[in-house]
Known about the structure:
Layout: E1 9-19, E2 24-26, E3 30-40, E4 45-50, E5 53-58, E6 62-66, E7 71-78, E8 87-94
Parallel strand pairs: 2-8
Antiparallel strand pairs: 1-3, 3-6, 4-5, 4-7, 7-8
Amino acid sequence: MALILFLIDQPTxxxxxxxxxNTTILRGTTVSLNCSTDANPAAHLYHxxxxxxxxxxxxxxxxxxxxxxxxxYICVPINRVGTGHNATVSITxxxxxxxxxxx
Length: 103
């Protein structure tokens, strides 16, 4: 008789990257935030925050934002075991944002 052990844990070792990878971004530019984590079972939901305020959720770990101001983006991965470790990236917005700017 074989004993099979399945370890389950909340998300750990979270990472948040941006595409483009440069964190100095022209205002009005759309940036993809990519959150990844180690978890078993896999994360099924990712919360995204900007300067502490919830800006959206994603089931894939990818969230697109239009950069309007300097700030800190945070990703919080979640699986059925619990809430994982946060991952952060700070973005510096440069240039002048105007409402008629093509996005």
